[in-house]
Amino acid sequence: MRILKLQKNCLFPFLEAISKEAELWAPVAKGDKFAFDRVADFSRIAMNATRTIIPAKKIMVPANFNMFHFTEKGYKEDLSHVTDRILFGVHACDIHGLLTLDKIFTQVYPDPYYLEPRKRTMILGLSCWPDEHCFCKSTHTHIVEEGYDLFFTNLESCFLVWIGSSRGDDLIRLVPDLFDENLTEKDIKTYIQWQAERDNAFKTEIQFVRLPDLMELNYRAPFWEELGAACLACGSCTMVCPTCNCYNVMDKQFLGEKPGQRIRHWDSCTLPEYSEVAGGENFREKKFQRLKLWYTHKLQAYVSKYGKPSCVGCGRCLVTCPVQINVKTVAAALEGQEPEAFWKNLAKEATR
Ligand code: SF4
Ligand code: SF4
């Protein structure tokens, strides 16, 4: 792995050169939030963006797409939405989110609808600074050693650029003169200082190592029903989570000769229909049962299988859930604390 230096005023010329190779996508401002979007005008790129509303998974598996066309004679795969892309500005936690999806979409049957866009999307990571909702230091996903082609650390005077793959190296070779191989002692000291200051900037900390046991011990704890009473079953927490990957398929048929379509769309385990089977039986009819499934998967089951939680500490559920059901408030409840969250206050009012 090589680390190069890029002066700040060389970033746009670099992006100009690489955007001739593939569609360039990056975080841009969307109101007071951020979203990944295709960019031609690089001044739109939000270099200091916090989390995007939807993570990079939307580039790999769109929320809604056609898998194949079918007729009575057979079917024809449709990957027309897949194109060569360069995704710039992906934060370390979101790269870990993609590494989690890589495991899930290859564990039994490799999923071509995920793997093909994944292969054709180059990942250019960018360092970030935590806000009060980030807790990726607790999940050890604030740093990343794999899963990117290039990674840019944004220091005050320059970028340090990690080359993570031969494809990343090829991008550098398009304009090698923009980069400097000679890092000075001052650059190294600046980087070490930046890293220490960034580590100290995290305001939220969660002890993930205790959570699998606490999930087991709290399996019948009353707070699950309190969560269920407040939850709106809107599905937002799963839509914004970089590691949530459930989907459903439905067939669209047309009159006449027009081929039918097999549509794949994001699904959510918090929605009532998720656990419904033929005949109308629903194995998780109650909202608390569905929430318990979600947290069991994030904090316990994935840990037993892969040795780490399937939460990357991005803070999206913290800023998205309208009733403050999120990893932070649930972890506090598991620890026996009284979280100052909407759902907890609702439960207190109900018992008055
Ligand atoms: S559970 Fe919440 S904080 Fe963790 S990765 Fe998902 S959205 Fe981010
Ligand atoms: S936990 Fe919050 S975001 Fe998730 S479904 Fe319930 S209300 Fe919606």
Could you describe the 3D structure shown?
This protein is of the alpha+beta class and 352 residues long. The protein has 2 domains: 3-60 and 77-200, no CATH class; 208-350, no CATH class. The protein is 34% helix and 20% strand. The protein has helices at residues 11-18, 57-60, 92-104, 112-119, 166-174, 185-200, 211-217, 223-230, 236-240, 287-306, 316-320, 327-334, 342-350; strands spanning 3-7, 23-30, 33-38, 64-71, 74-77, 85-90, 121-126, 150-154, 158-163, 179-180, 247-252, 260-266. The strands form 2 sheets. An 8-stranded mixed β-sheet has the order 3-2-6-7-8-9-1-10. Strands 5-4-12-11 form a 4-stranded antiparallel β-sheet, with no helix packed on it. A hairpin with a 7-residue loop joins β11 and β12 (260-266). α7 (211-217) crosses α10, α8 (223-230) packs across α10 (287-306) and α8 (223-230) packs across α13 (342-350). It starts with a strand and ends with a helix. The mean pLDDT is 96. Bound molecules: iron/sulfur cluster (2 copies). One iron/sulfur cluster is lined by residues 231-237, 270, 320-323, 325.
